[in-house]
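Inputs:
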Amino acid sequence: MYHANMALEPNTRESVAQMLRAHGITPTHQRIEIALVLFERCWHPSADQILTAVNVRYAETSKATVYNTLKLFLDKGLVRELIVDPNKVFYDSNTSAHHHFYDMSSGEITDIPAEGVRIDGLPPLPAGMVTAGVDIIVRTRPGI
Amino acid sequence: MYHANMALEPNTRESVAQMLRAHGITPTHQRIEIALVLFERCWHPSADQILTAVNVRYAETSKATVYNTLKLFLDKGLVRELIVDPNKVFYDSNTSAHHHFYDMSSGEITDIPAEGVRIDGLPPLPAGMVTAGVDIIVRTRPGI
DNA sequence: AGATCGGATTAGACAGAGTCCAAAATTCAA
DNA sequence: TTGAATTTTGGACTCTGTCTAATCCGATCT
Ligand SMILES: [Mn+2]
Ligand SMILES: [Mn+2]
Ligand SMILES: [Zn+2]
Ligand SMILES: [Zn+2]
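Outputs:
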């Protein structure tokens, strides 16, 4: 997966710190850990998965900080929320426009690149409204 | 609690009961009330809105029954879930294929008819998977 | 270095949505 | 009418996420 925010930088603490500074975020120890977890690979973790991943080595980050930080990253455009499951929000470190497969049986989320996908025939927006985003979710389940 | 003298058009109650039977659902009083609330107009209520609406005249239906019934209706294909808000599920009594505008500032949900909307260029599904549904959510907010 | 001070972190209380359970109520076929 | 099967129910419980006030930094100044 292409990470718009990572360019070709290695996932070092220093490169992550620079990315945070570039987005106007003071790079604290906890924020760097959370960013490393978010960008280390292509996944769509929940807050709880991030909390677990960040504390694998030492318990050094609290639940409150994970939620605080995810909200901050969201405000600053570093991550986006994925609303596909009734029970929890998933976070997507790929902020470029794209869509998703959602396997309803396993919960697995897979990116669909936006290039090549085209939506035709949408009606005009209600008066005075502006588009904040168009999400396509293809819900799948194991075939016969 | 069942009240024998509820003033409601017998045709409407009876037609709802028949619809439930046609879907293999035993039409109890609570289920009929919930179905009436769901189908009385075009809206996308949450479980809590349904609970409130059903109990406007008398408190005759419990929270547990609303959730039980919504799950039953979902299984039987009478309603569909709408996952657009991180905090609650909305229910859609329109089960034909269609899409939605979601006004992020007011929470208002508006139907987009599927006729005329076309999605091109979706990649093939992961091996062994089958489509359970394709949802387009156009998130909007008040314009400039 | 030591003191300062504002932002960041934290534990744990709290809230809202939804689930579960065992007891009570009801349905409906016999 | 009867009673077994189904449905309903209050309330405890779980889970995700929020809030708050105390504490902890860590960058800057002397
Ligand atoms: Mn939930
Ligand atoms: Mn929530
Ligand atoms: Zn994604
Ligand atoms: Zn709808």
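Remarks. Residues 28-29, 46-48, 63-64, 67, 87-89 of chain A lie near DNA strand D (CB under 10 Å from a C1'). Helices of chain A lie at 13-22, 29-39, 47-54, 63-75.
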